[in-house]
Design goal:
With 644 residues, the chain is α+β, with helices and mostly antiparallel strands. 36% of the residues lie in helices and 32% in strands.
């Protein structure tokens, strides 16, 4: 019995090879053409010099790949359209079945012959270049090049196979096939756009767990090509020598496979984008306190890889507003308003500014009349009343309370970086912008621009040099800048004075009434220094032993909130949150061993005197908590899993 099976297997293999060899012999002229095409790149350096073209030996590799790809596309279409369709139309397929051979063996042998012609011919086209210019053609052996080449070859072969059958069958089903093409493309496009948008563009396959250099377009082309190749196989197995029956079976097989893939893609894409806040399993970007009514939530969703949906969540009612990906949602410092940009249209893009009142727990997004032809950068004032929107070299200011444009002016800057490093809303009628005006060797030239909303003019008012890789801070009113230990006039850029401390002070924080603080950390001991509006050191307050210290908020003119890092846990530093009384110098710890939601950034407004200001957010084992800095009480606002 085993001997019989072995003989049958050997016979099948032998028959398959005979079919394949027969196909290669019948089209052997293609291999000769491939060799001639492969010789052309060798002549390129000489021809380039003769024609006066600037060329490089590396260009040989590029030309060799281009010729190989053209050869693969041409051979795939030519072989695919004739290897089944011609034999069926001319009734030569009966030759194989008389022997007798099974339909699957005939189809497999023909496919083997087709692959030998396509890939063999492609190898021949690059063989001369590889021998004589090995260094310049080694790029052809990378995964990206090989995968793109194989994907295009399979797609064109499948297209040739199906076209060769359906157009030669002269069946009424041809109309149905042609009608299903745009329908399938339309449905597939919907799924594709959803997935690509959700997974941040062309890297979506990487985001759901595939290799970094896995090209999604090539992957889709490969799947479609394989579906057409398999469809032709189904047609030949069912229809054998009857081309019309082969057409019917091939169409049924092809569109059945495509329907499965497309509907699966649509279902998967819908499932991905339908994630809700309850599906979030870990923080991927941020959680912010958006007033007392709403919580801004963004994190990885269960079963969706790196997809990170964003929501405005009402934690008391579980109502939520879905924020589009890449909307750039921004919340005003007082937590009263959020704005973001929504993209409309597919080919003709339209970007619309959306705002939302965060003081109202039942609020809905309000779509403004502010539209833009492309994506912009923007800045929101601390009270949420004004928005600065920059597009190329234009700056526009909107009044969000009145829903009107206040002014649009041209930015007098030569910098290619159109977005300022700092924007300060000095008062309702004046906005100050700090621009990087070019690249110096050791210094970055900074220019200071004032936008007067009353006169609707923007003008250069000052400049200063910023050492590279040095922390700098500007006061809220834009009247003062501190770079290292030097204090500048925030409008003119002129030096006012230098601090007596010679250390590099990077932790500088402006507080109310024109004052500022800095923290010295030396040998595990932290000291908080407070400077007056006149830049005079008023007091030094010991913060004790700590791994790190930051001023994270201000409760009143004379009370600050500081973070004192205690120890490093398994997923980051633990925080002790303390209040500092600037009058008495007292330090009172209000919470211990908390973990910050977003590094050391928390939402305690530095300038708001509103008692209804947002409370800072922290994460711990039970979820997300808001901390009352007056009492130290912790309120659980969400039980979402927030483990990093």
């Amino acid at each position: 019995m085993k001997n019989i099976k072995s003989l049958l297997t050997l016979e099948i293999k032998s028959s398959l090879l005979i079919v394949a060899i027969n196909e290669v012999k019948g089209r052997s002229s293609l291999l000769g053409a491939a060799l001639v095409m492969g010789l052309f790149p060798l002549l390129f350096p000489t021809l380039g010099k003769f024609l006066g073209l600037t060329s490089d030996y590396n260009d040989v590799g590029i030309i060799a790949y281009a010729i190989m790809l053209c050869c693969a596309v041409g051979f795939s279409l030519l072989v695919g359209s004739s290897i089944l369709g011609t034999d069926l139309a001319n009734r030569r397929m009966s030759f194989y079945f008389i022997r007798p051979l099974s339909s699957l063996t005939v189809w497999s042998g023909k496919m083997l012959g087709a692959f030998a012609l396509i890939f063999g011919g492609s190898i021949i086209t690059v063989l001369p270049s590889t021998i004589f210019f090995a260094q310049s053609t080694k790029q052809l052996l990378t995964f990206d090049y090989i995968f793109s080449f194989v994907a295009m070859s399979l797609f064109c072969l499948g297209l040739g196979l199906i076209a060769g059958i359906i157009f030669r069958s002269k069946s009424f089903l041809l109309g149905l096939d042609l009608a299903l093409v745009p329908i399938t493309i339309g449905l597939a496009s919907i799924a594709f756009v959803r997935i690509v948008t959700a997974y941040r563009g062309a890297y979506f396959l990487q985001e759901i767990g595939f290799a970094r250099n896995f090209d999604p377009i090539a992957a889709i082309i490969t799947v479609i090509g394989l579906a057409m190749i398999i469809g032709s196989g189904i047609g030949l197995v069912v229809g054998r020598t009857d081309i019309k029956q082969v057409h019917r079976a091939a169409s049924a097989g092809l569109w059945g496979l495509m329907l499965f893939v497309v509907l699966g893609g649509l279902g998967f894409s819908q499932w991905v984008v339908s994630a809700s806040p309850k599906d979030i399993v870990s923080i991927s970007r941020r959680y912010d306190s958006a007033g007392d009514k709403w919580l801004l939530v963004s994190g990885k969703a269960w079963g969706r890889g790196q997809y990170s949906p964003t929501f405005l969540l009402n934690p008391k009612t579980d109502d939520y507003i879905r924020i589009p990906e890449y909307s750039g949602i921004t919340i005003s410092e007082d937590g009263s308003r959020a704005i973001w940009i929504e993209e409309k249209g597919f080919l003709d893009k339209d970007y619309q500014l959306v705002k939302m009142n965060l003081k109202d727990a039942t609020a809905k997004p309000v779509y403004t009349n502010f539209h833009f032809p492309y994506r912009n950068d923007w800045k929101l004032s601390n009270d949420g009343s004004q928005a600065v929107v920059l597009r190329q070299k234009l700056v526009t200011v909107f009044d969000l309370n009145e829903d009107k444009e206040l002014t649009t002016v041209h930015i007098p800057s030569t910098s290619e970086w159109h977005w300022p490093l700092e924007v300060k809303f000095v008062n309702p009628g004046l906005i100050r912008l700090y621009y990087d005006d070019g690249q110096g060797k050791d210094m970055t030239p900074m220019q200071i621009l004032d936008l007067d909303l009353k006169d609707k003019k923007i003008s250069k008012v000052g400049k200063f040099d910023l050492p590279k890789n040095i922390y700098w801070a500007a006061s809220q009113d834009g009247e003062k800048i501190i770079v290292n230990n030097t204090i500048y006039n925030g409008k003119t850029g002129e030096i006012i004075t230098s601090l007596s401390d010679n250390k590099l002070n990077r932790n500088i924080q402006f507080i109310n009434n024109g004052r500022f603080t800095l923290i010295d950390l030396d040998k595990g001991e932290a000291n908080l220094k407070v400077f007056s509006k006149d830049n005079i050191e008023e007091q030094t307050i010991s913060l004790g032993k700590t791994l790190g210290a930051y001023v994270i908020g201000q409760l009143s003119d004379d009370e600050l909130v500081v973070n004192l890092s205690s120890q490093k846990g398994s997923d980051g530093y633990l925080w002790n949150i303390a209040r500092v009384n600037l009058k008495t110098g007292e330090l009172s710890v209000k919470a211990e061993n908390l973990r910050p939601i977003n590094n050391y950034q928390v939402d305690v407004p530095m300038y708001s005197q509103d008692n209804n200001r947002p409370k800072p957010l922290f994460r711990f084992s039970k979820g997300i908590v808001k901390l009352d800095l007056n009492t130290g009480q912790q309120e659980i606002v969400s039980k979402l899993d927030v483990n990093e």
